[in-house]
Amino acid sequence: MRRLLPLVLLALLSSPPAFSDAGMWTFHDFPRELLKREHGADIDSAWLDRVRTATVRLANCTASFVSADGLILTNHHCSEACLDENSTAEQNLVRAGFLARTRDKELKCAAQVADVLVGMENVSAQVSAAIHGLNDKAANETRKKTLAKLEQACEEASKGAAAGALKCESVDLYQGGQYWLYKYHRYDDVRLVFAPERGIAAFGGDPDNFQFPRWCLDMSVLRAYGADGKPAMTASFLALRADGPQAGELVLVPGHPGTTQRLLTVAQLETLRDVDLPRFLLRAAELRGRYIQFGKSGAEANRIVEDPLNSLENVIKVRRNQLEALLDGRLLQRKRAEEVALRAKIAADPALAGGGDPWADIARAEVRARELSLPYALLEERAGFNSRLFGYARTLVRAAAERPKANTERLNEYRETALPRVQKRLLAPLPVYPQLEKLTLSFSLERMREWLGPDASVVRQLLSKDSPDTLATRLVDGSKLADPAVRKQLWEGGQAAIDASQDPMILLAREVDAEARAVRKLQEDEVEAPVQSAAQKIARVRFKEYGTTVPPDATFTLRLNFGTVQGWREGSQEIEPFTHTARLFERATGQEPFKVPDSWLAVKDQLDRETRFNLASNNDIIGGNSGSPLVDAKGRLVGLIFDGNIHSIAGDYWFDPKLNRSVAVDTQIILEALRKVYKANELLAEMGQK
Amino acid sequence: MRRLLPLVLLALLSSPPAFSDAGMWTFHDFPRELLKREHGADIDSAWLDRVRTATVRLANCTASFVSADGLILTNHHCSEACLDENSTAEQNLVRAGFLARTRDKELKCAAQVADVLVGMENVSAQVSAAIHGLNDKAANETRKKTLAKLEQACEEASKGAAAGALKCESVDLYQGGQYWLYKYHRYDDVRLVFAPERGIAAFGGDPDNFQFPRWCLDMSVLRAYGADGKPAMTASFLALRADGPQAGELVLVPGHPGTTQRLLTVAQLETLRDVDLPRFLLRAAELRGRYIQFGKSGAEANRIVEDPLNSLENVIKVRRNQLEALLDGRLLQRKRAEEVALRAKIAADPALAGGGDPWADIARAEVRARELSLPYALLEERAGFNSRLFGYARTLVRAAAERPKANTERLNEYRETALPRVQKRLLAPLPVYPQLEKLTLSFSLERMREWLGPDASVVRQLLSKDSPDTLATRLVDGSKLADPAVRKQLWEGGQAAIDASQDPMILLAREVDAEARAVRKLQEDEVEAPVQSAAQKIARVRFKEYGTTVPPDATFTLRLNFGTVQGWREGSQEIEPFTHTARLFERATGQEPFKVPDSWLAVKDQLDRETRFNLASNNDIIGGNSGSPLVDAKGRLVGLIFDGNIHSIAGDYWFDPKLNRSVAVDTQIILEALRKVYKANELLAEMGQK
Lengths: 690, 690
Known about the structure:
The structure is a homodimer.
Chain A: H1 7-12, E1 25-26, H2 32-39, H3 45-54, E2 55-58, E3 62-65, E4 71-74, H4 80-85, H5 93-96, E5 98-99, E6 107-108, E7 114-122, H6 124-131, H7 136-158, E8 167-173, E9 178-187, E10 189-195, H8 198-201, H9 205-208, E11 220-225, E12 250-255, H10 266-295, H11 299-327, H12 329-348, H13 358-380, H14 388-402, H15 419-427, H16 434-452, H17 457-463, H18 468-478, H19 484-500, H20 504-546, E13 559-564, E14 568-570, E15 573-575, E16 578-580, H21 581-587, H22 598-602, E17 612-617, E18 629-631, E19 637-644, E20 662-666, H23 667-677, H24 681-686
Antiparallel strand pairs in A: 1-13, 2-3, 2-7, 3-4, 4-11, 5-10, 6-10, 7-9, 8-9, 10-11, 12-13, 14-15, 16-17, 17-20, 18-19, 19-20
């Protein structure tokens, strides 16, 4: 799999940069001339508008409409949380798969949303005017306030419109080079229509993750519903091209790449290499061990741990290979050369960067970043309180404190335009597994004690008469926050309800809140602010050189990139761009994760062994592109992005055209499987397939 | 705790160097003048001889004789394996402690030995003559053969002697600058006399490990027995000084520091930093998670996993702080400066290094070391086959192949002089826990598949129709190697017995042996040989400059160092050198690992709250020094080394006199506890205490 949006990663990394070799282009600055020159294809604005509005942003992935009745195609792993929340000890949908033969059988995905980008407005001038002449700290705060105001005004304005209320989100492109408001139509009601068994969706499991050749039917089908409870009418949708793409054919990928780090300075990359990545990986590796061992304690334990384990193993593979990329001298050498070149430009024209040395400014801020890294991760990013219940408690405690404030004075994630998502996530009736809660909470408390030391104030405060196990047990057993109704009451009751609550998880969240906020404030003022300011200076130099002829870094906003279907050369070996059904059965060991589901074995002889299964292309994708359609020059869907090869992980820092490949499910196997294995004739008909 | 000899580390790291700031001095080149000059103390050769022969080398630690009847004082954690092997599901001696009130109640430690260094012979000339004029690869092989021959001849010669047969071991000092034969009297029969509860021996557990202030009674008492089954007569022993040392007092530490890396080149340190340490830590962190979760599955699981978990957590703490030291720019900066200075000496006198650039030679070899690191660790060092049963199988398969060869043609660990220890370890009736075996073997197979990839030949060979779990289960359930009698039969049956065996673990060891040996050969020829040769050139330059006025790197051979009792300044805080009993009770949380045992709570009011508990000194120690006596200028025992502070871990690479401190149990609390808590009057009397 698994080009999932790495949420944890987003939280961990401090600041976004800009610059890409290959190209995650915006729709408003798509290089149509370049595409025409290189591939002879003419993409007009009608094409762009249609593909844009047929592309969907899920909470964690990309997807696309594939029927006029709101049918959405995305990856299996993008729907795994939904499958999980609809599973029980008796019926494990992740393993068994699911098909709603009629619309009334479709299953709600409580935490899922589907956003369609319907408008884009450049607000750079407003932001520039607001922060002009301010120092770093003031500029950082004012920038956030200005964007919060613009978002809110945009949403207010849309409320009267005929097309319905919009979600407005500010977007920082080119590291402060441009600011935009992106306007979305949001479907809040998303339901599950179809998913195959995980055994075939993720055939090869973690060992094969980020590998190619592959044989994964990593697909699922959802449906967007309107506020009226009826299937959404989606005039823009993509038709499936049944034969898939040809080798060498031009293919385009619209989607929401989550984050790239291609313009981080050497000092920032060194912090990642020396501090953030190794520490994260050590914690993650231990948690992986605990999950695996827990999963062996019984069938139900195995079921409830499967989804968190999969996510964790995915992020471990990503981070480990990011670390490898940073340890490989080539990358940093190249980055150093880039810095030398840009510094020379400033030396020739000091006014460019407004005087000063922004690289040195960032290096200084990084010293502070290293000092704050541990308390920030443990206290503010909750690495010391790894628990869904604590997450609810933190949200409730902070929302109660923030919501009474003026919109521009709040912590960023509680600004008015963000609240609906916060509320939805808080109140979604997701299952909470006490055993798993105790495991993760005890683990994280124990590591907090290890890393901060037994004499750190927060450790003394919590563990003076408790062990991590006894504390976690008491908190999880005593808390009522697993009940959505209790959460709703506290959410609606505001500060008074929080003050009155004796829920031990609420008490804990209150107890550590001041210290967490304090370290966040330090991080914002002493790291984020100077880095933002210096990065903007660097971006200005770069922007002046290149303008929008290079694409900005990824920001989980809609992009479009192009490439061709092709394999690569791995050492002395030529990797072909397509895999076929025949080899799937040869590769099966009969043991997880290389076990082909019974449904496939039952029809093995009826399947065309030459059907194309997965394919590689040189499109430039990253986490968040999961579920992106692969479209041909005519805008037809020819594949479904679900992963990249192992070299694609370094794509976070640079695009290596020789090695970096995306990996997709071919429409050939999608249709073959729906037809012969799952006999999903209604679905096929709705997608216009005979 | 836990200055244990890090065996795994020894295995992982490739080559030994030389140079130390502080001083792990040999007994044959002890700087008596320096000591006199700096501390006014006069240590004569009688003192040195007496302390040397009162000091004991255990299999994993240091210890000292404390009575004329073979009584041995060492750390609790040095005897934890012995406590473990004598425990049952009903009686957990690690937790409960143990006291043999009469000698017939003393418990055998099956895998323990006690060595006393009785002779030292310089054989540098013989080795030099043998390798003169050879190329790197031939010199590396010839050096090993020559040392094997010298050892064997030494042991043969001692067989007729009145004092009894000796164990002769070659020692490489100053990275090939000197070769010695060290001659030991070995006690093969070592028994457990006393150990307190782990709750007080390791009060504070992993969180407090390598921390100071501390309150640990990390002691145990063993007894050496002669071949006649009677207590050994040990004329050389140390008397306990009841009042312990004073702040600022001179204290000396005889002991067997395991290994230091103070002369590795920058290229070698970078391999550790970028490759070996992070990869080891990632595997270890996951295994820790599996162990912890396994331990929660029941009381017996908790008992059997405790010892391996403690060892693992110790090594994780060590390696993590080693990695931190290497990531801290100061260390590598200093090393780079040293290299520049030494290179300048060679530039001024090229003949010094025999022409060429030994640093460049090592850097080239390190490129290869990085490539080989993973297969070497997984296949040859058994990180891919983490199982005691597989270890037995590997030993049996290899011993059968090696023993018929001429002594000098064998793999180093099967040379004639090493065989008795190999045999003892193989046949010791240690418990094998199938559940734990499956856990570690499945884990390591799974990581081997992850790291080498599902398509690596060894992975395909083993896992084409199995998962790591099914394979591990089949191997462990099917193997009979847990029975010492079966191992004995195979050991004695030689190659014919191995060929005839259908034990699945033997079959596995045979199946992977060729590939493991092949990667070892590559490592020896393409990494070890050129590094050894280049390091010897560097050592020659250094040796010419300094001679024996600097001590050689640690090699788990007997050393003596001196320092004074003192604390240090941690940031703005002054750390006092002593802790006292009063604070132990204040610090207790009532929860593991901060739970004071009932035996102590019962006599709490009778204990003198001012008794000194643990102490810090600036002696230069490292893993292997665990259990070392801390002696005063008169050669009396005033403390028992059991740990260092957190800064001492970087002592592997350099000694930082400002921060690096050793940590010892004060004799005050040793005697107080034996008297009032354990009422061990026989022991006290034998040690000459009223």
